[in-house]
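Technical annex, item 7. During the second reporting period the consortium partners agreed on a shared format for inverse folding records so that results from different sites could be compared directly. Each record opens with the tokenized structure and is followed by the designed sequence. A conforming record, contributed by the partner at site C, is shown below for reference.
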């Protein structure tokens, strides 16, 4: 039997269950595993699982499912470890239905293993109740949940208006991230985002952050990736992997945390704009021993438990609201219409140029050097 496994998010990896489940499923046939999502890729690196879980491409889970469908495997598993029973099951429902929109024939069983090791963990056979489902539920001590139960309990009462989206399983005080941009904070255990003309305009159960909405811009609320709380909960020891440095000093520009940071892994230095973008990107780039120069304004929403930074990184903290303005000027003067530049020979030259740009804007700032 050929088995495709889609691993979603860092928590299933940090818990150790991704590897345990892959090893268990290997008893039933030949297993291939792949992953989507930036923070999940970091967890794979830290756990030294690159040779077991394919992280070469940044894919949303439904696209990863479709790859296995195209490969004509015999069964597909979705492994997830949501914040709660509700978030995990709703996540699976939405992934499975996005997947259905991308295929012609729903002839391959799709089975979700959700929150293994937890009392509210479950196994969900989304389209085919194989004997394997019952066997796995017994081995893993997980409840078998019927897809109709997920729909009845969590989906059908949602407002069908396509301009509204209910986010399940939230807690007060959590950051709200839409497509990797922090757009607000929750103040309730139930959250609804409201959009008009592809822009989020209101929120129920939280407070919006206007600066975040400006960064987000247009968004398809139905297909957007929405997360609340920390992106990665586990306390981890980051693993630094060997990385071939370019022969020439090559810098990259990054102004949006939603971009694929991993494509900058062959850079000598990355300039990041914004507090959250700097936090997330520097944490990932730490694994490849790449320093950052971050342009921040102190408006930080904590989205990872620990943010690691490579020695010799430099963080500029500028006046509130000026980080984007300075970022635009850096992009214009140092990169033009490119995302990479080889016009500088060392990090010190880049620092001097950025100081010049900030001084021309007449903005107060302070510099923090990472030792």
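Designed sequence (site C submission):
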């Amino acid at each position: 039997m050929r088995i495709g496994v889609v691993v979603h998010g860092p928590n299933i990896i940090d818990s150790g269950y991704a590897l345990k489940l892959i090893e268990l499923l290997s008893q039933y046939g030949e297993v291939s595993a792949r992953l989507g999502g930036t923070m999940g890729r970091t967890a794979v690196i830290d756990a030294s699982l690159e040779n077991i879980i394919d992280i070469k491409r940044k894919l949303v889970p439904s696209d990863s499912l479709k790859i296995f469908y195209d490969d004509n495997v015999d069964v597909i598993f979705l492994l997830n470890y949501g914040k709660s029973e509700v978030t995990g099951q709703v996540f699976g429902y939405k992934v499975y239905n996005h997947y259905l929109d991308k295929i012609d024939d729903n002839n391959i069983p799709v089975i979700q293993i959700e929150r293994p090791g937890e009392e509210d963990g479950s196994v969900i056979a989304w389209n085919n109740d194989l004997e394997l489902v019952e066997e796995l539920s017994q081995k893993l001590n997980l409840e078998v949940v019927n897809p109709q139960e997920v729909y009845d309990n969590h989906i059908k009462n949602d407002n069908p208006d396509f301009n509204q989206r209910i986010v399940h399983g939230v807690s007060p005080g959590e950051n709200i991230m839409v497509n990797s941009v922090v757009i607000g904070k929750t103040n309730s255990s139930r959250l609804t985002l409201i959009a008009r003309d592809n822009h989020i305009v209101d929120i129920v159960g939280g407070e919006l952050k206007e600066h975040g909405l400006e960064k987000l811009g247009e968004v398809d609320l139905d297909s957007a990736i929405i997360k609340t709380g920390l992106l990665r909960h586990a306390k981890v020891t980051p693993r630094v992997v060997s990385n071939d440095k370019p022969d020439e000093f090559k810098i990259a520009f990054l102004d949006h945390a939603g971009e694929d940071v991993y494509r900058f892994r062959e850079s000598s230095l990355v300039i990041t704009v914004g507090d959250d973008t700097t936090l997330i990107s520097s944490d990932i780039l730490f694994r490849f021993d790449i320093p950052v120069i971050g342009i921040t304004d102190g408006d930080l929403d904590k989205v990872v438990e620990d943010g690691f930074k490579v020695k010799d990184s430099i963080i500029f903290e500028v006046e509130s609201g000026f980080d984007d303005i300075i970022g635009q000027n850096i992009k214009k003067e140092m990169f033009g219409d490119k995302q990479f530049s080889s016009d500088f020979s060392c990090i010190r030259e880049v620092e001097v140029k950025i100081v010049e740009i900030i001084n021309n804007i007449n903005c107060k700032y302070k510099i923090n050097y990472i030792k």
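The chain has eleven helices and 20 strands. Residues 2-154 form a domain with the Rossmann fold fold (CATH 3.40.50.11220). All partners now use this format for quarterly exchanges.
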